[in-house]
Amino acid sequence: MCSKIVLFTIFSVLSISDSARILGIFQTPTTSTQSVFQAIWKELSLKGHQVTVVSPFPLRDKSLVNLTEIDVSGTTKIFLNHDFQFFMNKERSTTSKIEALFNVNYELSEAIFEDDGFKKIYQNPNERFDLIIIQIHINPIFHTLGARFNAPVIGVSSMGGYIGSHFAIGNPNHPALYSEMFLPYHGKLTFSERWYSSFYNMWVRGYLYFKAMPRCNQIARKYLGSNIPDIEDLQKDLSILFLTTNPILYEPRPNVPIIQAISQVHLKPVQPLNQELQSILDNAKNGVIYFSLGSNVQSIYMPERFRRILIETFAELPYTILWKWESEDLPNKPKNVIIKKWLPQQDILAHPNIKVFMTQCGLQSLEESFNAGVPIIGVPFIADQEMNIKRLERYGVGLEINYLSVTKEELKGKILEVANNDKYRKKVVELNSLLNDEPIKGLEKVVWWTEYVLRHNGTKHLRGPTVDIGWVEFLLLDVISVTLIFTVLCLLILKRLICFIFTKKEKLKTK
Ligand SMILES: *[C@@H]1O[C@H](CO)[C@@H](O)[C@H](O)[C@H]1NC(C)=O
Ligand SMILES: *[C@@H]1O[C@H](CO)[C@@H](O)[C@H](O)[C@H]1NC(C)=O
């Protein structure tokens, strides 16, 4: 009897992980971000799980029979309505950018909750999921779906962890060692950087506590009901946090065990180019500079001055320039510049005539460049991009351009240097072999850890003491205070004692 129950339990646990019902919410409507999530939800459905996904970038692949996609591409316009120039502007403070990102995310979340297809899911009392996967970037609102469906939650980010997600799961994040990825600092921080980093840390905590979290709770409860617990508490129960970075591309750091690095998940096998692109690349005898600022940062929004410098520089280069430019025409376009609204980046980078990739240095673009062995000119705009290029310069795989201050001579010099000096290309190959030297590939790792969470219904056993420790204890304020008080008391007693002995002696002498 007993063994039957055991067998039955084992069987039901196994069958859950064999084919689980998984719900994924991925809200940020940009191609590079979604390319990571697409790879993950596709793979999980191919493993036989019943996957339902809410995303603005559905795959629409009929062969994926275990996949249900809820298309929320209408939310893309919310993203576009927010001022891109604002995000691109390096002179704006990091704190105002964080606030702006939160504001976009409130709107995105409400729009997703308002979607009729998604409503049918979260409002259906009979709907059941074994696991929720959410995009964790800035937005913690969808953590609440774990509470709604009584299922463990996995988080995925298409970059490193933002400071708030480190706080939430108790990951050590000392401001003197690991600046926030939205700050441009890298390596050993100077005094002023440590100063700013420390106060920025405090600001984020205050902002989350007093402004962001109350608003997130309010939005979640509006749609999921007032008995949804506080997001601050739900975040602490996160089962796994997948980050698409690793100690090669970001500064090595201590991580709690629920953080798993998953690089290169979005890379695809190279596809043949269309005829037009193939002949452009084949015929570029001197080589090609491929220029794209990715999907978050769009070239058409770049500052006027920088665009002028680019055009003047490109006109003087012996190369063909392939530029992802999101408009029909480019004023004063030189003859050797070819513009396209969209380009199959991975397939282009694989072409042997590509000499340099001029990129904004988003992680997905970087992984594609390394995979193809192409060195880099980095033009960072937002988020981790500036930190990324600083690290890559140290590896010797590319050079940085500051779009605010660059001159034509500097830009031309740097492009020619990276294009012609073979040492950059050699370093890229070295770096790529380091990146690939892993016991298990990124996507396999995602599947393994996801099924681990399913097998054990979460990772409560991995929850460390850092999640629940309070600030007073963490900063040892209680220990320091008690020690100080004790020391002062001892000194006072000692002083009394010495005074007492001396007066005794004096009295003896005078007698
Ligand atoms: C769909 O899931 C079933 C198991 O639930 C699996 O056997 C089958 O291979 C999956 N098919 C595809 C195309 O993913
Ligand atoms: C998983 O854990 C949750 C929260 O502890 C619990 O409510 C739920 O019943 C568990 N599910 C299974 C299948 O054991």
From TrEMBL:
Pfam families: UDPGT
Signal peptide: 1-19
Gene3D superfamilies, sorted: Glycogen Phosphorylase B
Domain of life, per lineage: Eukaryota
Entry GO MF terms: glucuronosyltransferase activity
GO CC aspect terms: membrane
rRNA processing listed as a keyword: no
Keywords on record: Glycosyltransferase, Membrane, Signal, Transferase, Transmembrane, Transmembrane helix
Coiled coil, from the record: none
Enzyme Commission numbers on file: 2.4.1.17
Segments traversing the membrane: 469-494
Cellular localisation: Membrane
Membrane protein topology class: Single-pass membrane protein
Reaction catalysed by this enzyme: glucuronate acceptor + UDP-alpha-D-glucuronate = acceptor beta-D-glucuronoside + UDP + H(+)
Family in the record: Belongs to the UDP-glycosyltransferase family.
Protein name: UDP-glucuronosyltransferase
High-level lineage: Eukaryota, Metazoa, Ecdysozoa, Arthropoda, Hexapoda
